Amino acid sequence: MASIVYISENRVRELLNWEETYKSIKCALESVSKERAFQDKRSAIKLGNTYNFLFSMCGGLSDKTYGGLGCKLFTYFPENFRKNEPALKANIFLLDEETGSLKAVIAAAHITDWRTAAASAVATKYLHSENNNVLAILGAGSQGKAHAMAFKYLFNFNKINIWNRTTERAKNVVDELNQNNDNTSANKVFVAYDSIKECVKDADVIVTATSGNETLLKLEWLKKGVHINAVRVNPVYRELEDDIYKSSDVYIDYWEGAKYELEGIKDLGVEFKGQIGDVIARVIAPPSSDRISVFQSLGMPVEDCAVARLVYDLHIASNV
Ligand SMILES: NC(=O)C1=CN([C@@H]2O[C@H](COP(=O)(O)OP(=O)(O)OC[C@H]3O[C@@H](n4cnc5c(N)ncnc54)[C@H](OP(=O)(O)O)[C@@H]3O)[C@@H](O)[C@H]2O)C=CC1
Ligand SMILES: O=C([O-])C1=[NH+]CCC1
C-alpha cells in the first residue's frame, strides 16, 4: 500500500498560484452544470453548549486534470482568539478515485481562503462586464486579504478600497499589500477606508467578507450595474440589506447547498437566477450590464477536491 502524504499549511503556501487555482475552481464551478460533481450540503455539528462547530464537506469531482475525491473536515471555534489561534482549522482527506484509499491529508485553511477568493473571481469574470476600475472589499480578515490578492492578480483594478470594522487592521493589510505590489509607486493601489459608504460608492465590484452579524451594505450607496460577491455564510445574518437582494440578479454556487443554507434569502421572495457553472456552460445567460448582480457564495465540497488535487499533484511533481 502506498504511503499517506501529509501536506502542511506552509507547503500549501509554497505550492499554490493564482492561475492554477483560478482554473481548478472554474472547473469545479462548471462541473455542477455538467453532472461531473457529486456532492451534498455541508454537515454542521454544534459541540454541546458552546458556539463551537464541527463541519464536513464531502464530494467527488470527475475531471482529468482537477478531478478528486475527498472530504474537508473543519472546526470553527470563535473563542480561539483568546488562545491566539485562528477560529477556523481545516484539513482535507484526499482519497484515491479507483480504490477509495486515503492518499493525502492536506492542511486546508489557506486552501479555503484561496479557493473562495478564486470562486468570487470566476463569478466576477462571468457575471460582470469588463468595466473593472474600482474594487471595494469589506473585511480585512483572512478572506478579505485573499480576495484583495486574487483580484489584484487576476484583474486590472486601478484602485482596491478596503474597509474593516477595526480600521487599524485595514491599514495594516493595505500597507502590506502596497509594499508587496510596488513600493516605489506614488499612487498606491490599495487604500484603507473607515466609512463603508465612501469605500463602496465608486466601486464597480464589491466583496463582502466579514463574520459579524451586522448588515453592512445599503442599496442607496451602490453604483448602477455593480457586481457583488457576498462571501459570508450564515442562514440568518446577511451583510447585504434585503433591498439589495430584491433589486438584483442573484446567482449561487450549487443548488444542494442553497436549498438549506440560503432559505432566508428565498424567504424575501428572491428567485435565484441559477448556478455560476450554468453561466460558464452557457445554460443560462449572464445579467444585463445595467442590473446589479450578486454571487451569493457558500463554498462547495468539489472546490476543495479540485484544489486538493492541484496541491497534491504540484507536491508530488516537485518533491523529487
Ligand atoms: N463562501 C465561502 O466559501 C466561505 C465563506 N467564509 C466566510 O467568510 C467570512 C470571513 O471569514 P474569515 O476572513 O476567514 O474570518 P476572519 O476571522 O479572518 O475575519 C473576520 C472579519 O470579520 C470582521 N467582523 C467581525 N465581526 C464584525 C462585525 N460585527 N461587523 C463588521 N465586521 C466584523 C472582522 O473585523 P475585525 O478585524 O474588526 O475583527 C474581520 O474583518 C466568514 O463569514 C466565513 O463564514 C469563509 C470560508 C469560505
Ligand atoms: O466552504 C467553506 O469552507 C466555508 N464556508 C463557510 C465557512 C467555511
TrEMBL record:
<dbReference type="InterPro" id="IPR036291">
    <property type="entry name" value="NAD(P)-bd_dom_sf"/>
</dbReference>
<comment type="similarity">
    <text>Belongs to the ornithine cyclodeaminase/mu-crystallin family.</text>
</comment>
<dbReference type="GO" id="GO:0050241">
    <property type="term" value="F:pyrroline-2-carboxylate reductase activity"/>
</dbReference>
<protein>
    <recommendedName>
        <fullName>Ketimine reductase mu-crystallin</fullName>
        <ecNumber>1.5.1.1</ecNumber>
        <ecNumber>1.5.1.25</ecNumber>
    </recommendedName>
</protein>
<feature type="coiled-coil region">
    <location>
        <begin position="160"/>
        <end position="187"/>
    </location>
</feature>
<dbReference type="InterPro" id="IPR023401">
    <property type="entry name" value="ODC_N"/>
</dbReference>
<dbReference type="GO" id="GO:0042562">
    <property type="term" value="F:hormone binding"/>
</dbReference>
<comment type="subunit">
    <text>Homodimer. Binds the thyroid hormone triiodothyronine (T3); T3 binding inhibits enzymatic activity.</text>
</comment>
<dbReference type="GO" id="GO:0005737">
    <property type="term" value="C:cytoplasm"/>
</dbReference>
<dbReference type="Pfam" id="PF02423">
    <property type="entry name" value="OCD_Mu_crystall"/>
</dbReference>
<dbReference type="GO" id="GO:0047127">
    <property type="term" value="F:thiomorpholine-carboxylate dehydrogenase activity"/>
</dbReference>
<dbReference type="InterPro" id="IPR003462">
    <property type="entry name" value="ODC_Mu_crystall"/>
</dbReference>
<keyword id="KW-0175">Coiled coil</keyword>
